[in-house]
Design brief:
The protein is an alpha/beta fold. Helix content is about 45%, strand content about 20%. The chain folds into 2 domains: about 5-125 and about 250-320, Bordetella uptake gene, domain 1 (D-Maltodextrin-Binding Protein, domain 2, 3-Layer(aba) Sandwich); about 125-225, Periplasmic binding protein-like II (D-Maltodextrin-Binding Protein, domain 2), CATH 3.40.190. Helix 4 packs parallel to helix 11 (about 300-320) and helix 6 (about 165-175) crosses helix 11 (about 300-320). InterPro entries: BUG, Bug_dom1, TAT_signal.
Length: about 325
């Protein structure tokens, strides 16, 4: 290699070495795409749009929500995993993509641990055990006694196989030694409708969808799967209070980007997210939905997600649930 070739190679290497930093310094100079792996109008979509609007104020750029539902969030996950790590593509990620799917599917188009940049947590959705108001059991103690006295004969609804609602009941069954029969539906709305109508007696229900039904008396909440009672349902005891150990059940959400995003971008997005979680409109929307904010660093979000993947992997294996 002559001197000119050596200098050219050195210059190219130097440019490659500094380009991520330079990219981060100039970013964002255009709209950011926020992939939501669910249809428009649901809790995930509404929350993403609310948080995106709050983050827009500090990013000084438009954030465009792009709904890409399908394959239990794997379609959206694949889009983001294969995107350029330039900070212009991020996504909402929940239990499915971060904790469930690696155990529910024999093969995924991405590795949830290694193929993403973890940016930060957004929120946790509490899950409550609810029954039709006319059901014979009036409280949790009576419900548990009924379930044990009628093994395999008590049905429960869920939005579908592998949903947080389904796996919450599988965890409950595992911890209480009960046997209930799963009735999967194609979505939360028909499942909740049949519990309210009495066709199916019970289910685990997430509060963003279920809080109005509980507060109006259309379903009765027997217990909630949070560590402490929540302000919106102060009279509903936790499963832990009722003697069910290791029984926290909730859906959680955060933000991911493609792997190898420049650290400066990740930190900038995380900082803007922390500010957004304190925005009055975001705080109000979360309170209205019965959500709990999930602030923290990218590293904390990653660690939490991997711990949840381990915990739910054990539940899924014990239940024998597969989606392929």
């Amino acid at each position: 290699m002559d001197r000119r070739q050596f200098l050219a190679a050195a210059a190219a290497g130097s440019a490659a070495a500094v380009s991520p930093w330079a990219m981060a310094q100039e970013w964002p100079s255009g709209p950011v795409r926020w992939v939501v792996p669910y249809p428009p109008g649901g809790g995930t979509d509404v929350l993403a749009r609310t948080v995106a609007e709050a983050m827009r104020k500090t990013l000084n750029q438009t954030i465009v929500v792009d709904n890409r539902p399908g394959a239990s969030t794997n379609i959206g996950g694949q889009i983001v995993a294969s995107a350029k790590p330039d900070g212009y593509t991020i996504m909402s990620a929940d239990n499915a993509i971060l904790a469930f799917n690696e155990h529910l599917f024999s093969k995924l188009p991405f590795n949830p641990d290694k193929d993403f940049s973890y940016i930060g947590g957004i929120s946790r959705f509490p899950m409550a055990l609810v029954v039709n108001p006319a059901f014979a059991a009036k409280d949790f103690k009576e419900f548990l006694a009924y379930a044990k006295a009628h093994p395999g004969k008590l049905d429960y609804a869920s939005p579908g196989n592998g949903s947080p609602h389904h796996l919450a009941m599988e965890l409950f069954k595992n911890r209480t030694g009960t046997s209930l029969t799963h009735i999967p539906y194609k979505g939360a709305a028909p499942a909740v409708a049949d519990v309210m109508g009495g066709q199916v007696p019970c289910m685990f229900l997430d509060l963003p969808a279920g809080l109005p039904m509980i507060q109006s008396g259309k379903v009765r909440a027997l217990a909630i799967g949070t560590a402490k009672r929540i302000p919106t349902l102060p009279n509903v005891p936790t499963l832990a209070e009722l003697g069910v150990k290791d029984s926290e059940v909730y859906a959680f959400q955060g933000i991911l980007g493609p792997k190898a995003m420049p650290p400066a971008m990740v930190q900038r997005l995380n900082g803007d997210l922390q500010k957004a979680l304190k925005d009055p409109e975001v705080v109000k929307r979360m309170a209205d939905f019965g959500m709990e904010a999930l602030p923290g660093t990218p590293e904390q979000f990653h660690a939490m997600a991997r711990a949840e993947a381990k915990r739910w992997g054990e539940v899924i294996k014990a239940a024998g649930t597969k989606l392929d």
